[in-house]
Structures are given as structure tokens and as C-alpha cells.
Amino acid sequence: MQTINPLEFFRTLPPKQCTECGTHIIEQAESYLLECDRCLSRRED
């Protein structure tokens, strides 16, 4: 079994997409959001 360099693993991950509109989300550290800021602002509380 080949061991993958952890840095290479994270570099090759596809960009996260918003589950509502499908646009790419610019991720921040420790962020678990699945929707973009635009979709989150449209959501009613």
C-alpha cells in the first residue's frame, strides 16, 4: 500500500461547493459550513 503525503492529499481535494446553489466556497480554518454566505444570508431564522 502506498502512503500519501498529507500535504499532497489536502492539495488534491476538490473545492467545497455550496449545497444550495453549487458555487465554490472559500474555506476558512475550522469551518464546517456547507452553504455559501449568500445562501446563508437568504435563510430565515
TrEMBL record:
Source organism of the structure: Peribacillus castrilensis
Domain of life (superkingdom): Bacteria
Pfam families xref list: YhfH
InterPro entries hit by this protein: YhfH-like (IPR025432)
Protein's gene: yhfH
Protein name: Protein YhfH
